[in-house]
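Posting for a labmate who doesn't have an account.
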Amino acid sequence: MDKIRKAEIKKLIAKRIEKTKKKIEGYESMAQPITPENSIGRVSRMDAINNKSVVDAAIRTAKEKLSAMKSMLNNINNDDFGLCDRCQEPIPEKRLILMPESKYCVRCAR
């Protein structure tokens, strides 16, 4: 992969990292502990607890994606950037653009 394409992908990854950080901040603001209150009913409280679990899972997923993107950004200047970790074949550029955190080609990701 040439330096120009790497620079474009680097910018894309940096933008996605910032977007993911903002997304995590938003999720964390929604994931506040559920305080026991007498003013809400039992069903409403259970629904709030369930929603918190969903948001917690979204936070974990976003943090994993953020970590992977940071790793890719740190490795972008390596000679093996854009090569599949498993088969060492080039990862298609469209895949790197869609999923910049991807370490595997489509075949090996299955």
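Reply:
Got it, the structure tokens are right above this. Residues 3-79 form one domain.
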